[in-house]
Amino acid sequence: MKKPIPYDQVQIIERDALKFGDPVFDKFISTKGGIELGTMIALAGTSGAGKTTLCKKWQKDLKIGEVSVFFALESKKPSVAKQTRRIKTGATELICDVDDYPTWAEFMEYLYADKPTMVVVDSLQHAAELLSKENGVYIYQNYKNIIKDLYTWKDDTQGIVILICQLNEKGKMEGPASTIFNVDCPIFLTANPVTGERFMKTEKNRMGKIGKIFYELVDTEECIKFYTEDEWAFINCGVSFYDAMATAATNYIEAFSNQKNYRAFRKEFISLQAKGCKNLSSELEYLTMVNTLIVDLKEKYFA
User: Fold this and answer.
1) How does pLDDT run across 111-129, given as a tens digit for each residue?
2) Long-range contacts from 297-303, C-beta under 8 angstroms, 24+ separation
3) Most buried of the four, 150, 151, 222, 244, by CB within 10 Å?
4) What's the pLDDT band for 238 if we cut at 50, 70, 90?
5) Residue among 9, 111, 117 nearest 66 (CA)
6) Based on C-alpha coordinates, what's the Rg of the chain?
7) Residue 37 pLDDT
8) Buried b (16+ CB within 10 A) or exposed e, 1-38
């Protein structure tokens, strides 16, 4: 009979997270930088947010030799390929649909047999519908079955799962929304039709912090460019350079918040920074002043 064992006897698989080439996204998605292997992400978003484009870009940006597959259930292969043809891919970026795997069981058999590094399922709702044709269970009840199947697979193979989730006309997830919180990281994409802004937000993230970053579709090989909230405010909202740098500097000194003299350090930094700005005439002078100020105050309070 097996018994519980001490934590230090548990075999842990340590592998580098897979980076996707954009430092803003890589730092946003996990503390390691990139998506950790053995992770399941639920991707929901408003119309025009670019869910399919983003997923194909993730396929393209995987490390050379890593195989990925897009299971197209909402549309057939030609439709997805046409929609995303501006993103050039190679022999390891694969796509299939119900013509290839007419049942959910057959698709899962393929995943266990070939063990791709990353699988994209579009979408949870269509996968549940496909499974319902096999087991006769009500579609909504199969949401948990789909998530359980994919979660077990990613744990067994240390693969990455991206599960696209559809929204209804009210902007809420179609079906029992609570099911997506069973994954490691739900990501919600928003496209504002008035301002043209696009951003992604996490409210739960097993890999790192929760937060928000902006992105835009660009006519370059990158296809999608990500920005921090500070960068987006500086570029698009008329925030002055000094305001943006002051915010960045203030955010930086938060790294010392666990130090004994942090309050005095922060108070003097903010005071001296405000006084120093009055006598500056260029962005370079500001950067030099802030850098010198941080170095001096670190020496004063934490040496």
Assistant:
1) 999 999 999 999 999 999 9
2) 297/265, 297/268, 297/269, 297/272, 298/256, 298/265, 300/265, 301/259, 301/261, 301/262, 301/264, 301/265, 302/256, 302/259, 302/261, 302/265
3) 150
4) low
5) 117
6) 23
7) 92
8) eeeeeeeeeeeeeeeebbbbebebbbbbbbebbbbbbb
Two tokens at 294? Answer: 């941080």
Separation between Cα atoms, residue 122 and residue 125, nearest integer Å: 8
Cα 92 from Cα 113, distance rounded (Å): 16
Q: Is 46 exposed, middle or buried (0-12, 13-18, 19+ CB in 10 A)?
A: middle
| Span 64-87, average pLDDT | 94
Q: Would the pLDDT of 239 be above 60?
A: no
Tokens representing 60? Answer: 């393209």
Characterize 78-94 residue by residue with b for buried, 16 or more Cβ atoms within 10 angstroms of its Cβ, and e for exposed: eebbeebeebebeebbe
Residue with tokens 């698709």: 107
Report the predicted TM-score, pTM, of the whole model to 2 decimal places: 0.75
For residues 288 and 159, give the distance between their C-alpha atoms in angstroms, rounded to a whole number.
45
